Amino acid sequence: MPDANNAPSPSEPEPNSGSMDKFVRGLKAYQDGVSAGNAEQIEAAALDVLAAAAEQAEKNPTPQLTLRQEAGECEARGDWVGAEARYRKVLALEEATGNHGLITKAHLDLSKLFFLIGDLERADACAQAATAAARQAGVFPLLVMALENQVSCALARSDVAAALKAASEAVVAVEPGPLHDGLRAGAWVARARCRMAAGDWSGGESDLAASQPILLGQAVSPLFAGSNSRAAGWWEVTARVRAHHCDQPGAWQAWAEAVRIRRHVASLGHVAGPYTLAALARALRGSGEALEAAGNSDDAKAAITEAQRIRCELGLPERGQG
């Protein structure tokens, strides 16, 4: 799904390809809608792009697409070994093309899989490989995406210095202009997490304050999983700030907002699956812990029980990073 703050650039359509023509027209309409700030046009164009992309993929499935679909099916049934095998085949095919953007995506797929199942060493290794490929690709949104994934892996391994370095690079990598405000805000939130982990609470709060008008002050289509996920991330980090300041009711309220948004994102058909459900479970656990700290044991138990149930149904450990 295209995101209002990270619009892709049209590519040349294949000759006599009706679905590709629709795809390019949809991208153009999408970019026009972003430039004009027309939310209805953005949403309509995004749906057109999705439909055209699905039509094109159905008519001309590539080996990589087929393998990714198979990997998704493996993930849905908790077959992590099968998913890894297919993602590795995708990586080999992409490496053969020499396209660094596609290689980045293949490394990211593996990193996110390993992160989901709690294999943090391999998740971090693939994250670093994705960042290296993204630097060669020369496409800054891809680099920002790779760096933010590297931040998550480094923080999970308690390597705060590496996380802060990657987050700071992500902030600098975002090019100027309102079209990239969402990416910029997401990078600020990532750096806020790192600054707070390093004990720099004032710096982290400064990043949160800078990102708030973008992530919470602008209308966002409910279809945009990326924008909504960034907003959820803002609330999660804000919850930690409030807990740090001993504002337990405020921390719970922030977690409640994060849970609400994560639940919505997990319900979206184009992103539904283990990753968005794991993010929901993480927010539910955070909410449960905040409720417990605020003295609401019954609701805390319900939230944590739901988080455990989700992870159990996914075939994941009761507690984890994913």
Task: Describe the structure using short key phrases.
322 residues, mainly alpha, Serine Threonine Protein Phosphatase 5, Tetratricopeptide repeat, 77% helix, 0% strand, globular
What's the rounded overall pLDDT mean? 88
Oligomer: single chain
User: Any idea what the radius of gyration is?
Assistant: 20 Å
Supply the CATH superfamily name of the domain at 219-322. Answer: Tetratricopeptide repeat domain
User: At the third CATH level, what is the topology name of the domain at 219-322?
Assistant: Serine Threonine Protein Phosphatase 5, Tetratricopeptide repeat
Instruction: Give me the number of helical elements.
Output: 14
Strand content: under 5%
Q: How are helices and strands ordered from N to C?
A: HHHHHHHHHHHHHH
Characterize the main sheet. Answer: none
- Report helical residue fraction: over 70%
Given the helix and strand composition, which structural class is it?
mainly alpha
What's the number of extended β-strand segments? Answer: 0
In CATH terms, what is the architecture of the domain at 219-322?
A: Alpha Horseshoe
